[in-house]
Amino acid sequence: MLKKTVGGVGNFSQPSSPNKNKIWTKPFITAVLVVLALAVISLFTGVYDISGKEDGWDMFFITRVPRTTALLLTGAAMALSGLVMQLITQNKFVEPTTTGTTEWAGLGLLFVYILFPSPSLSLRMLGAIVFSFIGTMIFFLFLRRVKLRSSLIVPIIGLMLGAVISAFSTFIGLFFDMSQNIANWFIGSFAPIQAGRYEYLWLIIIITILVFLLADRLTIAGLGEDVAKSLGLNYNTIVLIATMLVAVAVGIVAAVVGNLPFLGLIVPNIISMMRGDDLRSNLPWVCVLGMGVITLCDIISRTIISPFEISVSVILGTVGAVVFIYLLLRNRKPKGARAR
């Protein structure tokens, strides 16, 4: 079994059991069925009476189906982004929220609104993708200059960078009288999703396929730059490609839905604790669990104060903060105590 310690966060190991490399196992099929059940519940959750109104089924296909589809695709995108970022940064506390990537995406959206008063969805998406990529590369440049690479220093740098970018975005928004755009972006919600406003999320399937094709290389890159280069891998190229894929995924989600905190932190860590850190075998699990978590949170957001709904980012932020604190406390335990 191959073991290593990454970024000071516990022991990472590749699964040694052949069964862990199989995808269609009973637990995985059960997880898929649970997610499908949540999707069905999502389709029939809402204030509008689908069966009792004359245009009920028209509304079903205009709003409910797009919303549920967007939930599934977004859950897979953000969970996948977190998994890839954790591999290439060698830190379990890293995801788009804790690296400033989402804040950079918001800044990109703001600049698009400044340059183009009524931008199309594709234009907003392009701006978010470009700024997400730039911001993530800046984060990596910061990491290269930091000698102390403990498990907490890396996300702290990302959170500080994100706070600076968020403050700058707020200043720009107030200066150009666009603070409403910033507020709408921070309130990540699926309420505005309807037919014609979510279709770009289908690109996430292409990103998922590309990550799966690069899975072995990304796993090797997760062993560290020295090890990756000794195995003949072009480390800088694979990190650049991974950053581009993450930027595209985060940019699409930011343009269509908004800010969704901690989803990329929760899901990969749960899967890692259960199955180890082999990207190829974990990727289907991460996508499915990401779909399930965000769909469940959205159902809660629609029912907790029905007939009104709260932003799904509030539910995700609450759950994510609890998981983040748990991971911090778990990481502080001595290895011997953790094993017992």
Automatic annotation (TrEMBL):
SUPFAM superfamilies from the xrefs?
Answer: ABC transporter involved in vitamin B12 uptake, BtuC
Q: From which domain of life does this come?
A: Bacteria
Q: Its membrane topology, per UniProt?
A: Multi-pass membrane protein
Keywords attached to this Swiss-Prot or TrEMBL record, sorted alphabetically, are: Cell membrane, Ion transport, Iron, Iron transport, Membrane, Transmembrane, Transmembrane helix, Transport
One GO cellular component term, please give it. plasma membrane
* Pfam families per record: FecCD
Instruction: Give the UniProt family note.
Output: Belongs to the binding-protein-dependent transport system permease family. FecCD subfamily.
Sorted alphabetically, which PANTHER family does this protein's record hold?
A: FERRIC ENTEROBACTIN TRANSPORT SYSTEM PERMEASE PROTEIN, PETROBACTIN IMPORT SYSTEM PERMEASE PROTEIN YCLN
Protein name per the record: Fe(3+) dicitrate transport system permease protein FecD
